[in-house]
Design a protein that fits this description.
With about 325 residues, the protein is mainly α. It is built from 13 helices and no strands. Helix 6 packs antiparallel against helix 9.
């Protein structure tokens, strides 16, 4: 059996138990939270007063932190790109068979439906807070969806699930850190919003990590080399093609990353910590029945965190040198 056919067989095997995984890692729609649960109700006579309170508190938000929140929102709103990408992965068949969807397409659609609430909620908060040039933000979002992304996985499910496992953990870190930082300034509403989104991301990370664990049980060597390949390429964030009006594709990403590093919302150290958590969770050190390529891949992965740590320890904090059109002039640069 060639490698492609083996991957399809592994995917089909895991897909048979998808209903159990859906029940474990996703919540029922009718009882799950919705954006309206967390924001002022426009039908309420107190709506205007509640919005004014949001705006007063938002005035105190740090420029870099607001930048990161906007970038995170744009990342969440580029969801059509992520769904279409996952639907094209080998083994994910979105066509119905005898009236029943493929198990993997059920997962992708249900995961997308949960993720869709994140961008909706954050977008509405930013609109209400009065600090954001919504048109500039919307231009960036449209560009990002139009430009797509290239995360180096192709249609390979093994590589895609390494990526999604890592990325869901990264978004959990980012939203959780924003929640912590804004809570310190008294913004309890935004802290709650980011906290509840972070909890979703943690559940989703658990699902994708479980997919990888099952693949390791069925095809350990190829799963190990896929993990190795993704880490050699480096995990790029889904919004790495981000740009503002008048800019080239990807021109904005480094400035956004610098803001995240300065605020300590998502840092190079977090990248290492996530890698370490996946190595531990997937029990990489003790995976058995590996072929020679799998053993070499394991050796690389086990040594990688230490190598990255040496580089990270020498990094300097990036300086503020950029104004984001989403917000307007940064008074800290004046």
């Amino acid at each position: 059996m060639n490698l492609h056919d083996l991957r399809l067989e592994v995917m089909a095997t895991i897909g048979k138990s998808m209903d159990d995984l859906l029940d474990k890692f996703l919540k029922p729609v009718d009882t799950n939270w919705q954006p309206a649960d967390l924001l002022p109700d426009s039908r309420n006579p107190e709506f205007i007063a509640e919005v004014k309170e949001i705006q007063e508190i938002a005035k105190e938000m740090d420029y870099d932190l607001l930048t990161v929140l906007i970038g995170d929102t744009i990342t969440e709103e580029a969801l059509p790109t992520y769904e279409s990408w996952l639907m094209d992965v080998d083994g994910v068949n979105q066509q119905y068979n005898n009236g029943q969807p493929n198990g993997w397409s059920k997962w992708v659609r249900a995961w997308t439906a949960e993720e869709n609430r994140h961008g909706d909620l954050l977008n509405k908060y930013l609109y209400l807070c009065g600090r954001v040039d919504m048109r500039e933000m919307e231009v960036t979002t449209q560009h990002l969806i139009s430009d797509g992304f290239d995360i180096g996985t192709g249609k390979d499910p093994y590589k895609n699930f390494v990526y999604t496992s890592f990325q869901e953990l990264a978004t959990n870190v980012s939203h959780r850190r924003v929640a912590t930082l804004v809570k310190q300034t008294g913004n309890t509403l935004l802290a709650k919003i980011n906290g509840i989104i972070a909890a979703d991301e943690a559940r989703h990370a658990g699902a994708y990590a479980t997919f990888v664990k099952r693949i390791f049980e069925l095809d350990p060597s190829q799963m190990m080399t896929a993990f190795d390949d993704m880490m050699r390429r480096k995990i790029v964030m889904p919004a790495h093609f981000m740009r503002q009006s008048g800019e080239k594709v990807g021109e904005l990403w480094s400035h956004f990353s610098d803001a995240a590093q300065r605020t300590k919302v998502y840092t190079a150290q977090d990248y290492i910590d996530i890698l370490l958590s996946l190595i531990k969770d997937w029990n990489i050190e003790h995976i058995s029945d590996l072929n020679e390529a799998g053993e070499k891949a394991r050796d690389y992965l086990m040594a990688l965190p230490h190598r990255l740590q040496r580089v990270t320890d020498r990094m300097k904090e990036p300086e503020k040198d950029y104004e984001f059109k989403w917000i307007g002039p940064n008074v800290a640069l004046r």
